[in-house]
């Protein structure tokens, strides 16, 4: 399998963690999201991923998977152990909801393309863009801080999908200097995760394309 990735992409970071947890090795193809206007816009990459985003996962069959939630679900389906969701349906729904707050409500508003649109098309200055970014992260994290049940991971003794989403989003928040002092439970779960090799080895700064 080939993973199309960029070290700073939090969606790719999620997939790197998921692959490591499942013990699946891939060849990594690096797509620099800002160099030369962004390699994701090249005709070669557009042929792989028409949305021009990372990650993409090419299977040995030649099929290409895109969108980190779909890729992570696929990995969980073909390698059921360790499971990314608890057995109980209510607990599963809670874990999925936690991941969705990040994947559906925080990350899409703060991603490279929307931020570039604010700057280039809507002509917003950097302080306004930073305020936008901080607002959506802080609002989302405030909700997550009340639903998390650390012990030591987001939902107890086992790593779940919630942890796979949380750790990359906290990395993003720090990079954009979002204060995290109001979110001690999120930060504690992150610290527990990063003690695991699967999370530690997926860190952006440990990737071959890190700058
Ligand atoms: N919902 C998608 C988001 C993918 C995504 O937006 N990736 C970003 C990096 S985190 C990207 O490739 N951005 C390129 C761009 O905005 O031009 C997923 O989870 O895979």
Structure explained in plain terms:
Helix 1 (about 10-20) packs parallel to helix 3 and helix 4 (about 90-110) packs parallel to helix 7. The mean pLDDT is about 95. This protein is globular. The chain contains 9 helices and 6 strands. It has a 4-stranded mixed beta sheet, with helices on one face. It has a two-stranded parallel sheet with strand order 5-6. The longest helix has 22 residues, at about 90-110. The protein has helices at about 10-20, 45-50, 70-80, 90-110, 110-120, 125-145, 160-175, 185-195, 195-200; strands at about 1-5, 25-30, 55-60, 65, 150, 155. With about 210 residues, it is of the alpha/beta class. The protein binds glutathione. Glutathione binds near residues 9, 10 and 52. Glutathione binds near residues 11 and 113.
Task: Compose a concise summary of this entry.
With 211 residues, the chain is of the alpha/beta class. The protein has helices spanning 10-22, 43-48, 68-78, 89-110, 112-120, 126-147, 161-175, 184-194, 197-200, and strands at residues 2-5, 27-30, 56-58, 64-66, 149-150, 155-156. Strand 3 and strand 4 form a beta hairpin.
